[in-house]
Amino acid sequence: MSVASFQHIAEIEKSPGYWAGVMRRFRRDPVAMIALFVVLALILMAVFAPLVAPADPYRASMLRRLRPIGTEGFPLGTDELGRDMLSRLIHGGRLSLLMGVTPVFIAFFIGSAIGITAGYLGGKVNSVLMRTIDVFFAFPSVLLAIALSGALGAGIFNGLLSLTVVFIPPIARIAESVTTAVRRIEYVEAARASGASSFTIVRVHVLGNVIGPVFVYATGLISVSLILASGLSFLGLGVKPPEPEWGLMLNTLRNAIYVQPWVAALPGLMIFITSISFNLLSDGLRSAMDIKS
Amino acid sequence: MLKYIAERILYTLPVAFGVSIVCFMLVHIAPGDPLTSILPPDASAQLQEEMRRIYGFDRPLPVQYGLWVLKVVQGDFGTSIATGRPVAMELGRALGNTLMLAVLATMIGFLFGGLFGFVAGYFRDSWVDRIASLISIVGVSVPHYWLGMVLVIIFSVQLNWLPATGAGPGGSADWVWDWAHVRHLILPAITMSVIPMGIVARTVRALVADILSQEFITGLRAKGLLDVGVFRHVVKNTAPTALAVMGLQLGYLLGGSILIETVFSWPGTGFLLGQAIFQRDLPLLQGAILTLAMIFVALNLLVDIVQSLLDPRVQRS
Question: pTM of the entire structure?
């Protein structure tokens, strides 16, 4: 990201009615609106899963294993233990969304704090913080997530922890570069010259200008995080059976591809729909806020 | 030029040091004692003490780290707990398989991603652009392990054209460049190529669109330069960045191959890593992660140097 584009943001963000303009541009973008609708529908579905799901997602039956899509009473078939696929997919959204969104959310706060501190203070603090961040950047993200959760062992908490560690470095890097750019803008210099304290400058000028672009960047990471979180469960790390979770369901249904291939592929389709919707939503936000990547 | 390269190498050293510390600490953040995976649960306190001494776990951490690094730089990654063979040997065999898969996938991804991105950037906001953009967003959004499963369902289960798993007929370990082996490579390579394809397409589209909007292009066109000539300028300005992205993508694929290798039972480093995790084979886990991360660090360095040779402007930023 170039410094100039952020300065551009910094300028337009101060003009009156900036957010109104963002909203207007966002509403005019049909793709982004559809993506927003799908994301909201998925979240509502997950929140109200017990009310929406037609059956108990845990009730197994050896008599009706691996029924095809369109079976009476089981519109999306049944899984390898005879549990209703539709209900499991609906309930699966709870853990999949939670495991995908939470790490980015936490990393957004921690990463922004690290990046803004490094960018604002500069000098030695910047070097120490950013060189540490560089070390974590030296790992491909999939490898780092798997290394950490592999060492820590399976489980929801360990999965969340590993993914959070993975997403702090990229967010911190962006926050640092935007903060460094903002710090050099004249009105920040002017605020400092007129005696504003560091706290005031960070709160008013830096936060106001940095949070927007960093937030948009973070929304773009949600799709990666969803794929990685379900990927961990797919590998047998992360969520443990019998909890319904899309990645884990994909894993346990892997052997069923010779019996009911399309039933086995359904959980992955859910991950795909969720991930592409978040990506399109993030792209829409980016262009509505006029941030050049 | 030499000064830039020297600076980049000097900058990489502390990063490599940090990476080695993270890999070393992985064994120590694991819950419980690193020995619990080797010892039977009813081992006597005396035996535990003995093993602790043999493996050197009784020494202070910095000493343990020093001794570990000293061995690693000599190519000694310890012994796999699961197989009893040297970790370096296990890794060497697997690395070749992953490298083959990742290089092929990067090439396919770069070829198609570059093509889609170029066409999209050149005919911006046309229907071609929209289709190419759609392909690239699907490429970055699709869970590739699921895409692998879907391809297996179509081409192995339903059509029975290509094998679903493994790297050769009858689970043979040695690779040969014949059809019986190459068939096994097709589905995993295509699945893997989708990730770099999406990213390369996005990058190239943005670069091409950016260059075409610059004044020197308008100037050249005004002076009567034909489209072929403009094309040459665009390629010259896009290539260094696109190649850098390709190099980094190769690194990501090498390090992140575990999901695809698990789907296809491809006997590479990712598959090995998966086994190490589930057998709690900590020396193998540590060795595999250190090797993959160091390859990524080295590749990053190489990409930076090559890019600075191709495009002198990089050195100044």
Answer: 0.88
